[in-house]
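REQUEST FORM: STRUCTURE PREDICTION
Request ID: SP-0412
Submitted by: Lab K.M.
Chain count: 1
Length (residues): 410
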Amino acid sequence: MTTPRTILHADLDAFFAAVEQRDRPELRGKPVVVGGASGRGVVAAASYEARAYGIHSAMPSFAARQRCPHAIFVAGDLAKYRRESRRVFAIFDRYSPVVEGLSMDEAFLDLTGTARLLGDAVSAAERLRAEVRAVTGLTLSVGIAPVKMVAKIASDLAKPDGLRAVAADEVRAFLAPLPVGRIWGVGAVAGARLEALGITTIGALAAAPEAVLRRALGSFGIGLARLARGEDARPVEADREAKSYGEENTFERDVADRSALADPIRSHAEAIARRLRRDRVAGHGVTLKLKLARPLGGGRYPLLTRSLALRQPTDDGETIGRAALSLLARVEPWEPIRLVGVAVTRLAPSDGSQLAFALGGPTDPRRARLNAAIDAIHERFGDEKLSRGAGGVRRAGLSMGIKRGERETR
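STATUS: Completed
RESULT:
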């Protein structure tokens, strides 16, 4: 018989907003929204006082203002949030050698086999929460379960500033009354198909005949039923390998002129290249992402992606930019754009000293020296101090995501 795993999901409460309220006493007890306040702005985080009005992350800022006209908007400080995140993750590392960071404010910790060192999981989690509060002044909600999905749901239900533990023999009963939307992968489309079958709870999904689920959702439905029964062997994965490096931004106004996208694309390409070089990886593929300005309703817009394969792997911003611009030239028919993004894919380890010679031109050694000089400037003064061949780009908003290769600020 397999010994149940002990998985802990730790999630900082209203992270960005909580940091602002900690550092600015005048914001405590008030509805604080971190994110862009412009018409195209997006809520990155909302304090619990703001959430009481129905404000949540990823909501358009104009909708947040409609729900709470007296909400206090704060632009946010990503460098500060990253510093706080590193402090919290340093604490996580003291409790488990296997920590899987999902974003700046949440992670899975594998506590299997740590009882002799840390005591029972609940006691260890309480000490972890107390240590995070003592060191950072922030609150942490925790879920404990033998399955990653269940631990994540448990921490969500424990918020704010709580702890919920689900034993192996309690998993089915814990999940049964919850809505199917709690299961990973159940979005609007899958949820609607399940609801049409009369399946609205996780318990009903767990008990549904396999043939019914296969007809409605194919093999995906069978996988959902396994999750509904608490069957999920996915391990906590420390230092998961990145599959791509990307940058994107939403424009304050729709961009109708194709040529106006050249500078933002080059700027994204240079930012990606710096991150690739810091992590000593290179990419064999480039993808261009465009969100059209034509609304589909419900806050949705058409999304176009175009990709190409490079003859040689690259970590060079000019090469990435040229590839992305070639993809842009192929987009027809042309429509106004609200968002542009660039990504480098199909990653492989690189030797920065040799990679420049694979880029395919007589000036490659000079470009390698130029890249090295620019990287040195960025490392010393910050990524915002120098841009090459491109104007500044306003990001779509603050992101909780952990960006590999991004410069750490002190």
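NOTES: The two ends are 48 Å apart (CA to CA).
Reviewed by: T.R.
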